[in-house]
Amino acid sequence: MTAKRSIENASHYQWGDACDGWILGPSPDMMVIQERMPPGTAEQRHFHGKARQFFYVLEGLLTMELEGEYYGIEARSGIEIPPGARHQARNDSPEDVHFLVISSPSTRGDRTDIVA
User: Fold this and answer.
1) Strand, helix or coil for residue 33
2) Model's pTM, two decimal places?
3) Are 35 and 101 a contacting pair, CB within 8 Å?
4) Sign of the C-alpha dihedral, residues 58, 65, 83, 18?
5) Which among 2, 45, 56, 97 could disulfide-bond with 78, CB atoms 3.0 to 4.6 Å apart, if both were Cys?
6) Coil, strand or helix: which one is 104?
7) What would the mean pLDDT of 90-109 be, rounded to a whole number?
8) Local structure of 10: helix, strand or coil
9) 108: closest CA among 38, 35, 53, 45?
10) Residues 53-86: pLDDT tens digits?
11) 73, 115 in Cβ contact below 8 A?
12) What would the DSSP string read from start to end of 48-102?
């Protein structure tokens, strides 16, 4: 893999209802993903047993539900999600939201969905 990474050369996947993810930094000790969420989309509420995450908004307004509290995360700002914290990223705005998710260690195999 090349040292310089962008959505043009990263592994791409789709998740949820028409959301996109690009794996910019795939390693066991740290995962970096750029994501795009269209208006009106949300991920499944969940938690990670080991991974600490930081969501950093590049464009738009991300709504993060964290342990029952709602936070509006604007462009050029972010929010930290500690291990074990129940959370859900949502796009309640009328525009796409683009953000980075930095996880340490990787969240692969470290996710428990919460069914309401």
Assistant:
1) strand
2) 0.94
3) yes
4) negative
5) 56
6) strand
7) 97
8) coil
9) 53
10) 999 999 999 999 999 999 999 999 999 999 999 9
11) no
12) -SS-EEEEEEEESEEEEEETTEEEEEETTEEEEE-TT--EEEE--SSS-EEEEEE
